[in-house]
């Protein structure tokens, strides 16, 4: 769905969207009969194929999402069934745009404890299912997407080195979907009041996101004795180009050290960071220092220090330069 497509739906234009968000287009799941679990399962299958392992080797599945197929069963259960992960248990984790980082941290604990050797972490959201396409302030921002990572034990100092997770529910009403839960269960009244769509107070969220992402990124650098010169890439949540730029400037790095694909996908919520890892995989080498950072509804925010474990050029199908060329 391009900006031109949105011009036909609401009072907006391509220049306004690009200059304020950095988004040119976003992906929308074409088949209305399919949901988040379909995208998550597709990402999982591609990952298993790349790694050369069978789904039966997966022991746990964590799906970060705010758009589960239904209230229950968990989307993770549906994904496990779809890919044939018959030995795996799983659950969904809801932390909005910080969901992938929270799920990554949670999955790592299962590996570190020795309980599991293969944990599948998926960030997936069908945001088009909760977006009001008559609201020009929110409908331009979001797209659908899914991406997956596999966590395995490491004894050589690679992988997740450190992480910070934070949450504060005091301003929850600034970014939420009021309907559908036990507070406002579905009814004619909630549908008519459009409570089942995402709501956002843009200016307030922008200020909180800049402050939250910037400070937590600086904090994780400081407590690991890192500077901008020590990291290969900052991998930020893809919410808004201006938020990403502000975070990079706050920690003193140039945009050449920031992964960005927001112009192609928009904000896919829990999927943005793993999609960046996928798109930049070919450029990553063993030992590269990455800082992942996110801010989302809740409010939730966090940062992860990751030391890359392998030569991405040997397995990736595309390179960042090819993706940029394709986008242009």
Explain this structure to me?
This protein is of the alpha/beta class and 328 residues long. Helix 3 crosses helix 4 and helix 8 packs parallel to helix 9. The model has no long low-confidence stretch (mean pLDDT 95). Helix content is 35%, strand content 18%. It has twelve helices and ten strands. The longest helix is centred in the middle third of the chain and has 22 residues, at 202-223. The strands form three sheets. The protein has a four-stranded mixed β-sheet, sandwiched between helices. The two termini are 16 Å apart. The protein has two domains: 3-151, Peroxisomal Thiolase, Chain A, domain 1 (3-Layer(aba) Sandwich), CATH 3.40.47.10; 159-327, Peroxisomal Thiolase, Chain A, domain 1.
Distinctive features:
single chain; 328 residues; alpha/beta; Peroxisomal Thiolase, Chain A, domain 1; 2 domains; four-stranded mixed beta sheet; 12 helices; globular
Number of domains: 2
CATH superfamily of the largest domain: Thiolase/Chalcone synthase
Residue share in helices? 25-40%
Shape: globular
Structural class: alpha/beta
Order of helices and strands: HHHEHEHEHEEEHEHEHHHEEH
Biggest sheet: strands side by side, in what order?
2-1-3-4
* Largest sheet: number of strands, sense, barrel closure: 4 strands, mixed
Number of discrete helical segments: 12
Poorly predicted tracts of residues: none
CATH class of the largest domain: Alpha Beta
């Amino acid at each position: 769905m391009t900006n031109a497509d949105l011009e036909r739906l609401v009072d907006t234009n391509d220049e306004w969207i690009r200059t304020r968000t950095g988004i040119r287009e976003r992906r929308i799941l074409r088949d209305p009969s399919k949901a988040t679990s379909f995208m998550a399962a597709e990402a999982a299958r591609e990952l298993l194929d790349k790694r050369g392992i069978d789904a039966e080797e997966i022991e746990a599945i964590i799906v970060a999402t705010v758009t589960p197929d239904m209230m229950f069963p968990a989307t993770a259960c549906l994904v496990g069934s779809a890919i044939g992960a018959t030995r795996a248990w799983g659950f969904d984790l809801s932390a909005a745009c910080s969901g992938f980082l929270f799920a990554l941290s949670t999955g790592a604990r299962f590996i570190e404890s020795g309980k599991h050797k293969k944990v599948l972490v998926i960030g997936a959201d069908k945001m088009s299912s909760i977006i009001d396409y008559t609201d020009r302030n929110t409908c331009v921002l979001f797209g659908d997407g899914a991406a997956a990572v596999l966590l395995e034990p490491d004894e050589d100092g690679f992988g997740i080195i450190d992480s910070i997770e934070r949450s504060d529910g005091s301003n929850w009403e600034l970014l939420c979907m009021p309907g559908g839960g036990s507070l406002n269960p579905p009814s004619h009244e909630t549908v008519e009041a459009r409570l089942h769509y995402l709501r956002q107070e843009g200016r307030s969220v922008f200020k909180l996101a800049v402050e939250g992402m910037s400070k937590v990124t600086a904090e994780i650098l400081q407590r690991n004795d890192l500077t901008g010169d020590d990291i290969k890439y900052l991998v930020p949540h893809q919410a808004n180009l201006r938020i990403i730029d502000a975070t990079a400037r706050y920690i003193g790095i140039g945009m050449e050290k920031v992964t960005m694909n927001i112009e192609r996908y928009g904000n896919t919520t829990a999927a943005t960071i793993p999609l960046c890892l996928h798109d930049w995989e070919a450029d990553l080498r063993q030992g590269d220092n990455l800082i992942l950072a996110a801010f989302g509804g809740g409010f939730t925010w966090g940062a992860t220090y990751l030391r890359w474990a392998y030569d991405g050029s040997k397995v990736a199908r595309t390179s960042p330069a090819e993706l940029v060329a394709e986008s242009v």
